[in-house]
Sequence to fold (224 residues):
Amino acid sequence: EPEVTQTPSHQVTQMGQEVILRCVPISNHLYFYWYRQILGQKVEFLVSFYNNEISEKSEIFDDQFSVERPDGSNFTLKIRSTKLEDSAMYFCASTGTSLGTQYFGPGTRLLVL
Amino acid sequence: QKEVEQNSGPLSVPEGAIASLNCTYSDRGSQSFFWYRQYSGKSPELIMSIYSNGDKEDGRFTAQLNKASQYVSLLIRDSQPSDSATYLCAVTPGGSEKLVFGKGTKLTVNP
Fold:
């Protein structure tokens, strides 16, 4: 069964450093998303991406964040200068249709020291 | 602010019992409704999706949607210890494709 994959599974970085989180969505899906979950809190939407552009973003997704689909398979989230409060689990999700079921990857646990 | 509210629990039921999980949402224009299961440290895993008023059954799970009351529920019949997890209600607000999640209800099924 096709699934969303994410790398790395864990990342530890120093405050101020740049990180890139990678995702491979399900192959025939067209809509891609990033969410995050701070420990003990709810899952929060960051950004949605369709047709090679951002379709929606949350207040969390400020100028420090960017997304890219560099080729036909990868979808990346870049945090330019990490802050302590960026420590969270980051989930990538994809769906084949607008408003369809979003399938989540296993997540990347980011720890900013 | 589009909100999704759930009782955080914990909800504890004996094995074989029915577990009932509830969720309310604030945006009357919401279009799609989902129940996800999340084990500790893992990603959300889809249990059920529901788009129109009424009941939808899939095995031991039944989702119920009442748009007039802005209410979604999930029933788990014949609960098993392996059902012990946090259940997340997620809603797609009107005019958006994002998921807005509730905080989740932690369910424990006791053998």
